[in-house]
Design a protein that fits this description.
Layout lengths: L1 H33 L4 E5 L4 H7 L9 E5 L12 H8 L5 E4 L1 E3 L5 E3 L20 H4 L19 H8 L5 E3 L6 H10 L7 E4 L2 H8 L6 E5 L3 H9 L7 E6 L6 H10 L4 E4 L10 H13 L4 E4 L2 H7 L1 H6 L9 E5 L2
Parallel strand pairs: 2-3, 2-11, 3-6, 6-7, 7-8, 8-9, 9-10, 10-11
Antiparallel strand pairs: 1-12, 4-5
Helix pairs in contact: 10-11
């Protein structure tokens, strides 16, 4: 009888330990979903040559993700360093950001001309000094107030070194001031500039041959504009538009022959599809149909959708730029 009792106690203890282990595993999984990684997935680039080589089309390339304004995720405001770093905990990416001028001529990151949508402030960005803006707090895409402040462009660029690339969109900062600041900070070989015309690209190249561009080239006419002004093809990626469509085939072919990677932005289009499964299908199709780079407000979701396509390109020589580093 005592032996039977001991066996029952052993069985009960074993079952209890199994249940506890299972609960701990579930807890760890849940924790990892909210705090997924202690490492960042980074692009290791030592200068313009690496930047150029990462963004050159070779036909054996790893699909690259551009996180539009850093993405839209609860608790992480757009155009914030916190959002950028959170994305890198999940996937390699570079970031489209929006520089604007303050009243005292400091460049900060802010998409809108006004403060209401994304901060606790009001009025125009250009009517406030940096000191005034630093007293505000950023809101996430749901309108929730966070602990984060508006970053200056210099703060964001300093953070990006050794981690990723910032693609500076054109807002209200004059081109000469953009050039002056980037050259003063010795960042011209480590940043990307959105240009809406070949003339804008030419302007930058008059100051430095180490500027890299995200160029609006959506059709053959715009392609010919860049050819006519002899903008070096190895100094750019091409934004071809927000749609994955058969008409893209011609521009993909023209640009790929010049070694130019092509980017489609899903932010205004496929990111807005209600079904997550349908969004995943569209993200995969964009790459399958010839795009090299996918820009999205949902970068973490896109990284999951493209996982197999990224893995299938793991033999690419560009793998040398895809690294991990310990997060701060």
């Amino acid at each position: 009888m005592i032996g039977l009792k001991n066996k029952l106690m052993t069985i009960i203890e074993t079952a209890k330990n199994a249940i506890i282990s299972g609960l701990l595993a579930l807890c760890l999984l849940s924790c990892n979903e909210h705090h997924p990684h202690k490492t960042l997935k980074v692009f290791k680039l030592d200068g313009f040559t690496d930047l150029r080589d990462l963004f050159t089309h070779t036909g054996n390339d790893i699909p690259i993700l551009s996180a539009h304004r850093g993405g839209k995720l609860d608790g992480y405001p757009e155009n914030s360093i916190a959002a950028f770093e959170n994305v890198l905990k999940h996937t390699h990416a570079f970031f489209e950001v929006d520089p604007r001028l303050t009243k005292d001529s400091v460049i900060v990151l802010m998409h809108d001309r006004t403060l209401e949508r994304t901060t606790t402030g009001s009025g125009k960005v250009s009517d406030h000094t940096l000191e005034e803006l630093k007293k505000l707090r950023l809101k996430d895409h749901q309108g929730n107030v966070t602990e984060y402040q508006i970053p200056t462009l210099k703060e964001a660029l300093d953070w990006s070194l050794g981690k990723t690339v910032l693609n500076l969109d054109k807002k209200d900062v004059p081109l000469p001031l953009t050039v002056k600041k980037l050259m003063d900070w010795q960042m011209e070989g480590l940043v990307m500039l959105t240009v809406h015309s070949a003339e804008e690209a030419k302007f930058y190249l008059n100051y430095s041959q180490e500027f890299m561009f995200s160029a609006f080239i959506r059709n053959k006419e715009e392609f010919e504009d860049y050819a006519m002004l002899q903008i070096p093809w190895d100094h750019m990626i091409a934004y071809v538009g927000p749609l994955d469509k058969p008409e893209n085939d011609e521009i993909y072919s023209l640009l790929n022959e010049k070694g130019v990677m092509c980017m489609v932005s899903a932010a205004p289009t496929y990111d807005k599809v209600a079904s997550e499964e349908l969004r995943k299908t569209r993200y995969r199709q964009i790459i399958e149909n010839g795009a090299d780079i996918l820009e999205s407000d949902r970068p973490i979701e896109v990284s999951r959708a493209l996982y197999q396509q990224v893995q299938s390109a793991s033999a690419s020589p560009k793998k040398t730029f895809f690294k991990e580093m310990v997060a701060n």
